[in-house]
Amino acid sequence: MSEPTSTNKEKKKTPLNGRRALPSNNSNAEENEVPEMEAFGLIPRGFNPKDYLRVVDIHMFKEHYEINKQQHHTDKYYNPKLIVRRGQPFQIQIDFNRPYKPETDQFWLEYLIGRYPQQNKGTYIPILVGDVLKPGEWGAKIIHRENNSIRLSIMSSATCIVGKFRLYVAIWTPFGIIRTHRNSATDTYILFNPWCQQDAVYLDDEKEREEYVLNDVGIVFHGNIDEIKLRSWSYGQFEENILDACLFLMDKAELELSGRGNPIKICRVASAVINSRDDNGVIAGSWDNTYTYGVAPSAWTGSVDILLEYYSSKQPVRYGQCWVFAGVFNTFLRCLGIPARLITNYSSAHDNNANLQLDFFLDDEGQVDAKLTKDSIWNYHCWNEAWMTRPDLPVGFGGWQVVDGTPQETSDGMYRCGPASVQAIKHGHVCFQFDAPFVFAEVNSDIVYSRREKNGAQVIEKIDTTHIGKLIVTKGVGSDEMVEITEEYKFQEGSDEERLALETAVMYGVKKQTTQNAMYQPQKDVEMDFQVQKAVLGSDFKVTITFQNKSRNSYTATTYLSGNIVFYTGVTKNEFKKHSFSAKLEPLLSSAFDVMITSNEYLSDLLDQASFHFFVTARINETGKILAAQKATVLEIPTLRIKTQGEMVADKEMSVIVEFTNPLKQTLENVTLRLEGPGVLRTVKKEFRQIPMNSTLIWEVKCTPKRPGLRKLIASLNCDALRHVYGELSIQIQKP
C-alpha cells in the first residue's frame, strides 16, 4: 500500500516503475495466460503427451449439501462454485486416464490469483502431494484411491489471501510440464475462517459465530435516547452475486492482492470504498432531505440491491445515511467471513475540531447563535465493529475494532475511519492506529454552553459532561433484543477510571481545551429542566418546563423556547416554534409551565426522521444568570402491517400482504413500497399515486420461498411527506 500512486491515467500508461519488476497486482478479476505445455527444451519427434498420465476430470464436491460447503459453513451461499474457509482441509477428486502410480507419476496442484501470480506474494501457490497435512499450512495428501481416481484432502494456509483462485493440475513428463485447461468450474473461493484458531478472525463462541458471520438479517436501532426505535435490515451476504460484488469492492479500492489476507488492511480500505467521497465508492451520502434521481436513505430495506447495483453500474448508488453505510459494510464483512456487528451510539458527537468539546454559543438573549455553533450532536450514529487480532498493536488491543464507512472527517487524506480498537478507546490509549481519537470524541465529548459578554469576555454558562455517548447498543446474539455495550467503550460516568482514561487520551494528544481563560460560575440556586410529551406524527403535544427555586428569594425568569426541525445529525433545518414568557419563581418552590405545539406548526417542514430539537434558555432577571437545556425528541411513526396467506413451504408459491393506513391529515402522493426477505423473495417495489387521508392500501405479492427455516420479511414505505415507515414479520418456512 505504500507505493506512491500517481493518478489512474498515468498508471495505465506506465505499468512499470523503477522500483518493481512487475506491475501491481490489485485485481482479483484479471487473469494471466497459463501455458498448457511448458517444454524443457527441444521435444523429440516421437513424443506423444497421451502416453503420460492425463487428467480426465476434476470433482470439486461443491454442492451445498456436499462435504466441503457443509464442513466450511458455506452451504448458504447461492453460488455454484466451491467456497471454503482458510486453514481448514477440503476435498477434491481427480480422475486420470489410467490408475495413478506414485512411483513413476508426478503431479501437483497450482492455485493462482490475479494477473501476475508470484510465489513469494502468495498469488501463485504450487502444492505437492505429501503424507501429512500440517495445520494452517498449504498441503495436500491422498485419502482414497480407486481405479483411475484419487481423492485429495487439501489444506490451505490460515493466512492465505481471501478471494477467488484458479486451479490447475500440472503433470511432469521428461520433456515438459503438461497442465489442465483453464476451467472456471474448478475456481475456488477462499474466505476468512472464524472457526480456525490460527486465523486472525478466530472467534471461539459458536453462538457468536452464528450471529456475527452467518446471520443474514440484523437490526438497526435508531430514534433517540428517550425514544429508541428499531428496524430490521437484510444483510443478504449469501445472496446470488453478492460474494463477487464484495470481492469487486477490494478491486475497486485497488488493494494489493498480497494484502488481502489481512483483515486490518481489508477493513481500512473498505471503510473508504463504502462511501463515494474521493474514490467513487458504493454509496453517495445525502443529508439534505432532497433525494432527486435516487432512493431516499430510509427506503432501503437491505444491502443486496445497493451492492448489486454498484457491481453492475460501477457508479455510486444514491442515497445513504449512517445506517445504510453500516448495513452495507456489515454485509461486506460477514460475506468475507470477518465477524461483524452494527453498533448505534445515541447522542453521538461530531466534533469538528476534535477538542473533546462541543461548543454551543449563546447570544445576549440566551438563544443559540447558529452562525458560531459548528459542532453538532447526532441523535444517533451507526458504525460497525469487526472482530480480529491486532498484531500491529501491543497485546490486549485485539477483539472488537470500530470501523465506520460514513464519511465524516478525513483520515490520512481520505474519508474513512478505523479499524480502532474498542479496548484502546475505553482506556484512552488513542495513540494506537487508526482514528481512535475521533471515535473517542464521538463517545466522550462535553457540551459547553458559552456566551460573549459586551466587553468581549467569554462566560461559560453550563458544562454538560454526561449528554454524549449516553447509550451504545447492538443486537443480541441469537435474539432481537437490544444489548447495551456502553461499558465496552467507557467506564462508569464519574468514576476514577473514567477520569484516568480521559487524562490518558489527553496525554496522547487528544486536544482538550481548558476553560481557565473563561469565567465559569454555575447557577446553583435555581434548577431548570423540561419534558416533551410523547406524540404520534400528525398530533399536537406539549412541552413542560419546570423550575426549582432553591433559594429564599423571589425571582422572575425570562424564558425562551426554540423548537427546531432537525436532521438526525443534529443539524437544524429551521426553527418552527419560538415562544417566550416570563416565569415567576417563588422561594423554595417548584413551578411548571406548559407550551403547546400544534401539528400545523411542524407538519409542512418535517424531515425524514420526524426529529425535533428543543432549546430552552432562561435568564434570571435579578442575577443575570442564564440556565440552558436541550433535548431531541422523535415522533411516533405509523408502521406497515405484513401478513401471509397460504402454506409456507419451500419451493411452493405463497402470498405476502402488506397493509398501511394513512394517519396524516393530507393525501400522500407518489408512494413507493419495497418488500424483501433473504431466502424468500428478492426485493419487489410498487408505486402508488395517492393514498387519501385515513384510507388503507393493501398490496399482495406472490413468491416462492427458496429454503426452509426461520426467515424475515422486511417492508418499507416512502414518500416526500412520510419516510421511515417500516414493517417486518418473522416466518417459518417448512421443508417440502
From TrEMBL:
<keyword id="KW-0808">Transferase</keyword>
<dbReference type="InterPro" id="IPR014756">
    <property type="entry name" value="Ig_E-set"/>
</dbReference>
<keyword id="KW-0007">Acetylation</keyword>
<feature type="binding site">
    <location>
        <position position="498"/>
    </location>
    <ligand>
        <name>Ca(2+)</name>
    </ligand>
</feature>
<dbReference type="InterPro" id="IPR050779">
    <property type="entry name" value="Transglutaminase"/>
</dbReference>
<protein>
    <recommendedName>
        <fullName>Coagulation factor XIII A chain</fullName>
        <ecNumber>2.3.2.13</ecNumber>
    </recommendedName>
</protein>
<feature type="binding site">
    <location>
        <position position="493"/>
    </location>
    <ligand>
        <name>Ca(2+)</name>
    </ligand>
</feature>
<dbReference type="GO" id="GO:0046872">
    <property type="term" value="F:metal ion binding"/>
</dbReference>
<dbReference type="GO" id="GO:0005576">
    <property type="term" value="C:extracellular region"/>
</dbReference>
<dbReference type="InterPro" id="IPR036985">
    <property type="entry name" value="Transglutaminase-like_sf"/>
</dbReference>
<dbReference type="InterPro" id="IPR001102">
    <property type="entry name" value="Transglutaminase_N"/>
</dbReference>
<dbReference type="GO" id="GO:0005737">
    <property type="term" value="C:cytoplasm"/>
</dbReference>
<dbReference type="GO" id="GO:0003810">
    <property type="term" value="F:protein-glutamine gamma-glutamyltransferase activity"/>
</dbReference>
<dbReference type="InterPro" id="IPR013783">
    <property type="entry name" value="Ig-like_fold"/>
</dbReference>
<comment type="similarity">
    <text>Belongs to the transglutaminase superfamily. Transglutaminase family.</text>
</comment>
<keyword id="KW-0106">Calcium</keyword>
<dbReference type="InterPro" id="IPR002931">
    <property type="entry name" value="Transglutaminase-like"/>
</dbReference>
<feature type="binding site">
    <location>
        <position position="444"/>
    </location>
    <ligand>
        <name>Ca(2+)</name>
    </ligand>
</feature>
<comment type="subunit">
    <text>Tetramer of two A chains (F13A1) and two B (F13B) chains.</text>
</comment>
<dbReference type="InterPro" id="IPR038765">
    <property type="entry name" value="Papain-like_cys_pep_sf"/>
</dbReference>
<keyword id="KW-0865">Zymogen</keyword>
<keyword id="KW-0479">Metal-binding</keyword>
<feature type="active site">
    <location>
        <position position="404"/>
    </location>
</feature>
<dbReference type="Pfam" id="PF01841">
    <property type="entry name" value="Transglut_core"/>
</dbReference>
<feature type="binding site">
    <location>
        <position position="446"/>
    </location>
    <ligand>
        <name>Ca(2+)</name>
    </ligand>
</feature>
<comment type="function">
    <text>Factor XIII is activated by thrombin and calcium ion to a transglutaminase that catalyzes the formation of gamma-glutamyl-epsilon-lysine cross-links between fibrin chains, thus stabilizing the fibrin clot. Also cross-link alpha-2-plasmin inhibitor, or fibronectin, to the alpha chains of fibrin.</text>
</comment>
<feature type="active site">
    <location>
        <position position="381"/>
    </location>
</feature>
<dbReference type="InterPro" id="IPR036238">
    <property type="entry name" value="Transglutaminase_C_sf"/>
</dbReference>
<dbReference type="Pfam" id="PF00927">
    <property type="entry name" value="Transglut_C"/>
</dbReference>
<feature type="region of interest" description="Disordered">
    <location>
        <begin position="1"/>
        <end position="33"/>
    </location>
</feature>
<dbReference type="Pfam" id="PF00868">
    <property type="entry name" value="Transglut_N"/>
</dbReference>
<dbReference type="InterPro" id="IPR023608">
    <property type="entry name" value="Transglutaminase_animal"/>
</dbReference>
<dbReference type="GO" id="GO:0072378">
    <property type="term" value="P:blood coagulation, fibrin clot formation"/>
</dbReference>
<keyword id="KW-0012">Acyltransferase</keyword>
<keyword id="KW-0964">Secreted</keyword>
<dbReference type="InterPro" id="IPR013808">
    <property type="entry name" value="Transglutaminase_AS"/>
</dbReference>
<keyword id="KW-0963">Cytoplasm</keyword>
<keyword id="KW-0356">Hemostasis</keyword>
<dbReference type="InterPro" id="IPR008958">
    <property type="entry name" value="Transglutaminase_C"/>
</dbReference>
<feature type="active site">
    <location>
        <position position="322"/>
    </location>
</feature>
<feature type="domain" description="Transglutaminase-like">
    <location>
        <begin position="314"/>
        <end position="407"/>
    </location>
</feature>
<keyword id="KW-0094">Blood coagulation</keyword>
